[in-house]
Amino acid sequence: MTRRASTQFLLVLAAAACLGPGQPLAAANAVKGLGDPGDLKSINVEQAAAGSSIVLRGGDARQQLCVTGVYSTGQLRDLTRAVRYSADPPGIVDVDNTGFIVPLRDGETHVRVTGPAHTAAEFPVRVERFANPLPINFKNQIVPIF
Question: Is residue 131 within 8 Å of residue 97, measured between CB atoms?
């Protein structure tokens, strides 16, 4: 018997021993999921925790939002692409359908995240130094490229 065949045999034997008598080997391959999460109770935007605001400095600044759904069973699920985003007033930032924020001009706006089951979250976003960008720092921004 080759080394590979003996290793496979030992793995099958170990799986059969874990299952116990009378249980099919196919049950070892069954993957158990988390089950039904229950009702969606709330949504959280991780970058805007506890009512804090997001600050974007300069025209190159970007922010990816991560939205988590909290369910009645205590489960947490990623809802980043299952919610809708809007900014009020518009024109200060652009938020695409994946939650990616891009500044458009200086100012303050509120981003509203609307999820399923009438859940929502809202937080302020401030854009600074869009019109007057920060000067390039040669030592920190250019030298590392070399």
Answer: no
